[in-house]
Structures are given as structure tokens and as C-alpha cells.
Amino acid sequence: MTPASARPSLQTAPPGSQPLRVVSYNIRKAVGTDRRRDPDRVLRVLAEVGADIALLQEADLRLPPRRPVLDPVAIKAATGMAPVHFAKGVAMGWHGNALLLAPHIKLQALALHDLPGLEPRGCLVAEVQRGDQHLRVVGVHLGLLRGSRRQQLTALLRHLGQDPLPTLIAGDFNERSLEVGLGRLSRQFTILSGGPTYHSRWPVFALDRMAVSEGIQPLNIIAHRSADADTASDHLPLVGDFTLSAAQTRSAGGAP
């Protein structure tokens, strides 16, 4: 793979292929730029996007029992998606990272990992299936310190190992530099930016990114703007459209 970090131009999906839409969104516990906690506003943004897969950050309240800020019934009603439950208390996410799937996307395997660093961080690694296509999606929210982010990326790559399954990593990378801060990731993944996502009212920094391995072709990636998106969180949602290579098979018992 040739590493690259770019904002891809809009391309046409190959004939007969069905684009896959993924959104990464730091919802800031549903607290908007007006300092109001408004879960319904976040759900309206997710409905605007119309994703197949949503990877959320800061999806739970900070203090135990870390209750989710979005109600699963309301998520279903507003977006048609359903959250993946991790069977770990009442929280919707793992270290705040949550995964929502449209009905036609089936969860095949799930792994939850702690990540090193000064702050408690983690990632979720899910293997999902759409029809006869399999891929791995990874949700992350990296730390505020560059030293911690480097440790976390090293640990993440170790968790992923050498599995050839097409993989998409998405989240709040909290990093402005592709070369210094994300260099170890770019050796194995193509890092994508849809432009500045922070601060949502006056976007300046591209803190939210997606990274893809071979087998996943980006068509378009943008920071989604709307009246609700500009106020629902301090981050804009990052929306990517992708096509997958020829059907990827998975041996029985495979896991991320």
C-alpha cells in the first residue's frame, strides 16, 4: 500500500457497487456550543447524515455509572440504527466509544481494548458484514498528549495484528500533524481528512479522521455542516463514503 493523507475528491462508485457510508462523531456528551445538553439535536444530525455505520465518541456521561446520553429507542426512531451493547454496565460505549449499525449491517465479532496513556482511553474493534462483504471497523478517541497518542497508536496496531481483513479506523484523533503525530499509522493505513471539524462553529483543526487499509476505496469524505451540526457538539461529524473490494470471505471463528 502507498501511504497517503489527503482529502479525496468525489469519485464515481464502480458499476453495480453499493457505497458504504460511515460517520465518526464526537458528540461531547450531547452538550452543544450553546452549553445545552440536547440529545435530540445530536440524533437529528445523525439522521441528516444517514450512515450505515456510526462511530461515536463521548457517548456516555463522565461519572459512574456512565449512563449513555442517547436513548436506544430514540436512536432507532430517529435514524433506524441500533447501538451495539457491550454488556459492561449501563454505558453505551467503551471509554465513550460507541458503535451504531443500520439493520443491514450485521455484527460478527467485537473486541474491546484499553489503551495506554495518561488518561483512561480505549478502542473498540468490530467485525461487521454487509451481504457477502466483511470488514473491520475501529472506533478510537486518542489522548490529549502527543506522547500518549503515540503509545495508543502503537497499542492499537498491535491489537490489529496482521489480519488482512479490510479495516477502517475512525474517531477523534486529537492530532493536527500527520507526519509527526500519526506517522506510525500512515505506514499501514491511508489517513483521510474531510477538512476541519473543530471547533464546529468556526472549524479550524482537522482533529477527526478516518484511516483505511487496502480493500476499502474512499469515494468522498466531508465534515458535515448544517444548522444542527454547527451547534450540537463542538465537533462536526466526519462523513465518509466508501466502496469495498470484491467480497471478502471470513473463516469460521474469525475474530477482530
TrEMBL record:
UniProt xrefs under Pfam families: Exo_endo_phos
Superkingdom assignment: Bacteria
GO-annotated molecular function: endonuclease activity
UniProt keywords, alphabetically: Endonuclease, Hydrolase, Nuclease
Endonuclease/exonuclease/phosphatase domain span: 23-235
UniProt-listed InterPro entries: Endo/exonu/phosph_ase_sf, Endo/exonuclease/phosphatase, GPI-anchor_lipid_remodeler
The protein's name: Endonuclease/exonuclease/phosphatase family protein
